[in-house]
Each structure stands twice: as C-alpha cells, then as structure tokens.
Amino acid sequence: MLLKGKKVVVVGGSSGIGLATAEMAKREGADVIIASRNATRLDAMAEKLNAVAIPADVTSDQSVSELFRRCGPVDHVVVTAAQLKTGPFKTVAMDDVRSTMESKFWGAWRVARSADIRPGGSLTLVTGFLSVRPRPNSAIVGSANGALESLARALALELAPIRVNAVSPGVIDTPIRAAMPEEARRDMLAKTAAGLPVGRVGQGEDIARQILAFMANGFATGSIVYIDGGALVS
Ligand SMILES: NC(=O)c1ccc[n+]([C@@H]2O[C@H](COP(=O)([O-])OP(=O)(O)OC[C@H]3O[C@@H](n4cnc5c(N)ncnc54)[C@H](OP(=O)(O)O)[C@@H]3O)[C@@H](O)[C@H]2O)c1
Fold first, then answer.
1. Closest Cα to atom 18, ligand 1: which residue?
2. pLDDT given for residue 191 in this prediction
C-alpha cells in the first residue's frame, strides 16, 4: 500500500475532488483527516470513510491554525477547499471577487503556513485550467488559479525538503455545480465532453490519482500538472 502509516489531511475533503482523494488515500493505507465547514456533511463523510473529521474554514486564520494544532505533525496535505463567485469583469461585485481570493488563494496560503508537514512529505494545491485557458466571466477564478500555481513553485523552494506541487483540473463532475439547474448542468457537461479528445468530463478520482502520485513520488516538487481530458490541446 502506497501510504501505509502516513497521515494525510484533505482540506475540502467532504466533497468532490477532496472526497475522492480522501477515499483513495484511505484505500492506500493512510490515516486520513478531512476538514471543511459544514460539520454535518463532514461527519457523515468521515464516518463513511473511517476518517477523522475536523471542522475548519480556510477563510479564517484562527480556524486554520486550530485545525493544524489538532492535527499535529502530518505527512501529506491537500487543499481542495474553495468557494468561487464570478461574473462579468466590469460588473461583478468586488465582495464576490475578494471572497473568491479569500478562500481559494489565501485559504491555501493559510494552510501552507499552519501545516506541520514532516520532511519529505508533501503539500498539493488544486488550481484549475482557467489559469491558462480563460473563459469570459471567469477572470477572478483564472487569476486565483494562476496565483496558486506561482505559490506552489515558490513554496517548493522555500519549504524544501517538503515537496509542493499543484494539479490543475479541467471540467470535473462534482457537487461544485450543485447550484446550477440540473438540465443546464447536464447539457454543459455533455457539450464539454463532446469537445474533449477523451470524450468525457472528469471524475473526482481522475484528479485524486494525480494527487496521490504527488504524495508518493519523492522526486516531484514545483510541478504543475494539468489533468483536463485534453482541454488544453482542443
Ligand atoms: N469541479 C471542477 O470542474 C473543477 C475544475 C477546476 C478546478 N476545480 C477546483 O478543484 C477544487 C475542488 O473542487 P470540487 O469540484 O471538488 O468542489 P466541491 O465538490 O464543491 O468541494 C469543495 C470542498 O471544499 C469545502 N470548502 C469550501 N469552502 C471552504 C472553506 N471556506 N473552508 C473549508 N472548506 C471549504 C467544501 O465543504 P464545505 O462547503 O462544507 O466547507 C467541500 O468539501 C476547487 O478549488 C475548484 O476550484 C474544480
């Protein structure tokens, strides 16, 4: 087993890519801690996985430092937590763009500062292909992703021998789009799938597999890997 005896923390582990990562790490023998805000959903997922649940909000310095105080020294940390608000560049509310950076960028920053990762362990950030393949109405999300990729490279130097990497997903079918009307969501996913060389959108496991590869590969640091079904070449 790839992660036997290792302690893995997934911040954002109650849903989507984070949940798939927590499940896979558990299957590979890790002791897993999942963290997110909604304690009911977090506890339910932790029970299902036989993992430990610690409620935390990445937009709060205090909450993130309390999370890692409770975790103690760990081997691998993954940050998938983010709540994104976007809209047309000229009219999107400044509160919305600030809150997007607050969770996606500053959230990862706080985690990187607070986590006590053992030497040779790893931190994996989750960015997104909008950093290099922008779409209208998503400037703030693309910018947050780009900033996170720069952060991953910088921390790979500054936090060494802890390894720091980022995975950049394409379109992944997770609850992140739960607020969309179901028909519009299915239509969007089907159209996206039809335009990709792989002929499908991603699942959480597709990204989790890369995150576990970063944990296990002691030569991987400062890497940004795009797992997007070919979105960047189509
Ligand atoms: N799905 C995609 O198509 C896609 C594409 C590119 C990039 N990404 C990126 O991948 C990451 C994971 O996305 P996903 O699709 O797995 O989303 P998801 O299914 O919505 O899961 C997000 C997780 O983060 C937690 N979370 C949100 N805000 C938080 C906060 N302030 N503090 C702590 N936890 C918080 C959520 O739980 P609570 O709400 O209970 O806190 C949940 O566990 C995000 O950074 C997203 O931008 C996703």
1. 176
2. 98
Amino acid at 158: E
What is the structure's pLDDT at 54? 98
- List the structure tokens of 206: 């597709």
What radius of gyration do the chain's Cα atoms show?
17
Is 100 buried (19+), middle (13-18) or exposed (0-12) by CB count in 10 A?
buried
| Average pLDDT across the chain, whole number | 98
- Could you tell me the domains of the chain? 7-226 (3.40.50.720)
Instruction: Kindly tell me the burial class for residue 206, based on how many C-beta atoms sit within 10 Å of its own C-beta (0-12, 13-18, 19 or more).
Output: buried
Q: Do 54 and 30 form a contact (C-beta atoms < 8 A)?
A: no
Q: Which residues line the pocket of ligand 1, CB cutoff 6 A?
A: 12, 14-18, 36-38, 41, 56-59, 80-84, 103-104, 107, 126, 128, 169, 171-172, 174-176
Helices and strands counted in the chain (H then E): 7, 7
State pLDDT tens for residues 164-197.
999 999 999 999 999 999 999 999 999 999 999 9
